[in-house]
Structures are given as C-alpha cells and as structure tokens.
Amino acid sequence: MVKTVAIVGAGVSGLAAIRCCLEEGLQPTCFERGNDVGGLWKFSDQTEEGRGSIYTSVFTNSSKEMMCYPDFPYPDDYPNFMHNSKLQEYIKTFAQKKDLLRYIQFETLVTRIKKCPSFLLTGQWEVVTEKSGKQETTTFDAVMVCSGHHAYPNLPKDSFPGLDQFQGHCFHSWDYKGPDTFKGKRVLVIGLGNSACDIAVELSRLAAQVIMSTRSGSWIMSRGWDDGYPWDMVCITRFASFLQSVLPSFVSDWLYVKQMNSRFKHENYGLMPLNGTLRKEPVFNDELPSRILTGDVSIKPSVKKFTETSAVFEDGTVFEAVDFVIFATGYHYNYPFLDDSIIKSRNNEVTLFKGVFPPLMEKPTLAVVGLVQSLGAAIPTVDLQARWIAKVFTNSCSLPTTKEMMDDIDEKMVKNLKWFGQGQTLQTDYITYMDQLGSFIGAKPNIPWLFLTDPQLALEVYFGPCSPYQFRLMGPGKWDGARNAILTQWDRTLKPTRTRAVSKAYRPQPFYNLLKMLLFPLLLLTVLLTFY
Ligand code: FAD
C-alpha cells in the first residue's frame, strides 16, 4: 500500500503533485534543487545546469483563464498573457494558499532513484539526495518525477559543417537572458520556435541585422484571435474539437491552413511550414511579421555551412560578418537520476502510457508529470495527470495490462505521426487527452447530463473555451466554485483590457452565431418558397 511519495522538482508540476497527493491522503516529500518554487518561471539571471531557464522578456503564450490551476483562478485584473514575474507571483500564491511549502525540501538535489531490492514485492524506491554536500538515502513507496523538460539544451553542432572554425560567439537560447550585449551586432538565430522568434524580435530593435534560419518553417500566430479575444479561448473549444473529428481530413486541413494564413500569407514572408497541415504547435508572436515588413528580421533556409566569419545557406546566399549565432533548437529529455531504460524502454524512445506511466514496470509506483505537450496549457494538464497518478498509487484507479498500454503507445505514435509529424516531443490533442485522463478518474464533464440539468452552463462548456475549471466541475476532486468560474471567465478576461468603458462589453457568442448560420438558409428557403 503506497503511503509516502517522493516528488522531484517544485515547478508547476511538482506543486500539482504535492497537492494531489494530499487530496488522496498520501504523504508527499518534494525535493527541489533551487531555493524557490516555480521551476523555470522563477527567473534568474544565471543559468544553472539541469534547470530550465527563461529570458527577462518572456510572456506566456497561454491566456490566464486557460492556464490556471482548476480551482484557483487568477485575480481579475491580471493581464491575459502574463509577464513571467506575474506568473511566478501566482505560482507562489498558490503554493502558500494551498499550504504546500512545508512539504518541500529546498536546495536538495535528487542524484539517484533506484528500485529497492524488495521492489517486486513492495514497489518501493531508494531516493538519494544531496544537500550542502551531504548525501542521504530514503525509501519511498512511490515517486513522481516533475523535473521539467526545458533543462538540457539540444545543440546540434555536428549538423553544421564548419561551425568549429566559426570565430564569432555561439550559444543556445537556454543561455539567453536579454539584449544588452547585442547592440549593433549581426545575429543569426537558428530555429523558428517561440523562443527563436521572441529573441529575434527583441534583438531586431538594437542589433545591426537579425537573420533567422529555419529548415521547416512555422505558422506564426497572434495572441489576440477573432475580435481580439485570447487565441486559446476561441480555438480550444469542445465544439471545435468535435468539428475536427467529424470533418473529412481534406476539409479540416483546408480550413486549418486558411485560418493560419488569415493574418498574412506565410509564403510571402518565408515562413510557410513544409507540411502546413500538420498540427504542430504554432508560434505565438505578434511582432515578427511586422519586423519582417520593416526589414529588421529576414528568414532564410537551413545553414549549409559556416566559414570563419559567415553563414552560407542552402539557397547559396551568405550572411557575412556574423557576430553571434543563437541556437534556439529545443531541448533533450534527460533524467540523469533514473535508469534510462525506465522512461525509454524501447529503441531509446520515450515509452510512457499517456506520457505518464512506464508500461513495463512490475509495480505502477513511478510516474512522470509534465512531459506531454499540447496546444493547451501546462498547468491544467499537470493537475489532471497528478490527480490520476495519485489515484493509481492509492489503488482507487487501475492501469490496463502491459500489452494494452504498449498497444495504446503504438497506436498513439501512428496517430501522432499523421497529426504532428516526426518530432522529439510527446505531442497530443489537448481536449482528447484531458478527457481521457478525466474519464480515468471520473472527472470528465458529462455534457449530455449538463444540457439536461443546467443548459446555460452546458452551452458555455461545449461552445465556450475548454477552461481548466471544467475538470473540477464534477466527480472526485470537484470544486464548488467551478460553475461560477466558468460562467464568469469572460468577465475576468475583459477586466484588464476594458479599462475605458464607453459601451457595453461584447463577449463571443459561438452558439448563437452557429444558430444564426443554420437558421439563415432555412429562412431564405422559406421566403423563396413563399413568394415563387
Ligand atoms: P520546470 O518548470 O522545469 O520545473 C522543474 C523543477 O524541477 C525545477 O524547479 C528544477 O530545479 C527541479 N529539478 C530538476 N531536476 C531536479 C533534481 N534532480 N533534484 C531536485 N530538483 C530538480 N507552458 C504553458 O502552459 N504556457 C506558456 O505560455 C508557456 N511558455 C513557455 C515559455 C518558455 C520560454 C518555456 C521554456 C516554456 C514555456 N511553457 C509554457 C512550458 C513550461 O515548461 C511549463 O509551463 C511548465 O513551467 C513546466 O513546469 P514543470 O514543473 O514541469 O518543469
């Protein structure tokens, strides 16, 4: 019977893990190598090996209503997309209000986690920690790994012939903190993800020239979507997810590409993804297109080779006198304290059931939180993962057989290839994934029941944003404030922007718009039949 749980890391995943252990009557001990909660959102102007790192100017890409702990909305006046310091403030308040800090041992590094000799019988783990140079080994009944996946930079130096002769400076975006040293410099940014675009735009204000090099391109989206509402509140809805699942793929692909190109034609800006119909995570950057328009940033294909001073691109063009090359080329998964075979049990690929449980384990007493990536935000995802894990640990929920889990992983890999393409990350469709986890623990909202019993709420749940509160609306772990939080989510969204009110506030009305769309042809037909 599991009682004690070791949690590695006190970022947003670790905090969710502590809270969910407590909800299930478990005894968590969280080890955090840093001196504060928040993980990568705790800004530091120094990088630290094995820890995520952000630059001074990072803002969130998920909006506040879509990225909260499901029973802990942000204050009304918080901006919709927050500066990292604001998010860190929220995370700390969450930890304090939920009384989680006393379960965390700060400045304590987990150096090794291995199965106890009695593992087959007990499922227990030996956790070795190090604090102020002193090592300690403690036995735990179970482990939740919440150590993040933006800590080990992927620096593909070998893929670039001549880079060893290049005489300028060369580093990974993990090391980037701010623009000060780049005034008047010529900078090449490799990659076209969120960090690459943020850095290129920021540097373009003071560097002499910024070039971005991309192999496969990206869709560049704005944080403000239709009528200026936060993109995720408009796009991540149950109705949109339903449409995507029933429309023939050529129709949904066409709609997707049309939508992505609605602000500007990506072909004309050199940004067009090679396979534009893949549902890879888009990049959110409101300024990049205008920086390209003003000529401060230019987009180029892959670098073919470096010389001592320049970069030669695949199309034969050359960027001369390069001062800096910044590799914004993503991260490796790495769990140096665990045997590789636990997470990567086949062909050196991450093999985890629902991105959480190693399927080949004799006892399900180890799980990973926060590894899965989707279009949705991390915080609600890790909350649901941690709730599920805690229930598996306490036997209130059981896992399928090893074969069923492996089959599920294989099926998911095939689907992922179709939707997201080849990639290192564990990508998934947000609502489908959240509903699956929710159904494991009885927390998936019952939509037909809601339509029968509370139609006002049902309309907002189905046609409105699939906000985190939906997963604490019913079932175990239910939060009594969830209904009200859903019905007032647009008020909190408009509060920080409607700071000068001259007329009544407008909110999106997807259901009524749909009704109008369906009724209009009917009305037209009736008129035509009546008069002709
Ligand atoms: P982390 O925040 O990395 O925390 C892991 C913690 O584990 C750290 O505190 C670390 O010190 C600790 N740790 C690691 N190893 C050990 C060890 N051996 N012993 C003890 N402690 C250890 N997500 C969103 O949802 N929305 C966004 O807008 C968004 N923007 C992002 C922008 C950037 C630039 C980056 C890099 C990521 C962004 N993300 C965003 C994703 C981000 O990963 C998640 O939001 C989230 O912070 C992940 O939390 P985590 O707790 O899993 O990992």
Description:
The protein is of the alpha/beta class and 532 residues long. The protein has two domains: 4-151 and 332-440, FAD/NAD(P)-binding domain; 157-222 and 263-327, FAD/NAD(P)-binding domain (3-Layer(bba) Sandwich). The chain is 33% helix and 16% strand. It is built from 17 helices and 22 strands. α1 packs parallel to α10 (378-393) and α10 (378-393) runs parallel beside α12. The termini are far apart.
List the helices and strands and how they pair.
Elements: E1 4-8, H1 12-23, E2 27-31, H2 84-97, E3 104-105, E4 109-115, H3 119-122, E5 125-131, E6 134-140, E7 142-145, E8 152-153, E9 169-172, E10 186-190, H4 194-204, E11 209-213, E12 220-221, H5 231-235, H6 238-246, H7 249-260, E13 283-284, H8 288-293, E14 297-300, E15 303-306, E16 311-313, E17 318-319, E18 324-327, E19 331-332, H9 340-343, E20 366-368, E21 372-374, H10 378-393, H11 402-420, E22 426-428, H12 430-440, H13 447-453, H14 455-463, H15 482-487, H16 489-494, H17 510-531
Parallel strand pairs: 1-2, 1-7, 2-3, 7-20, 9-18, 10-11, 10-18, 11-14, 12-13, 21-22
Antiparallel strand pairs: 4-5, 5-6, 8-19, 15-16, 16-17
Provide a short characterization of the protein structure:
With 532 residues, the chain is of the alpha/beta class.
CATH homologous superfamily designation of the largest domain? FAD/NAD(P)-binding domain
- CATH C-level of the largest domain: Alpha Beta
Q: What is the CATH T-level topology of the largest domain?
A: FAD/NAD(P)-binding domain
- Averaged pLDDT: 92
Strand content: 15-25%
User: What is the topology, as strand order, of the major beta sheet?
Assistant: 3-2-1-7-20
CATH architecture name of the largest domain: 3-Layer(bba) Sandwich
**What portion of residues is helical?**
25-40%
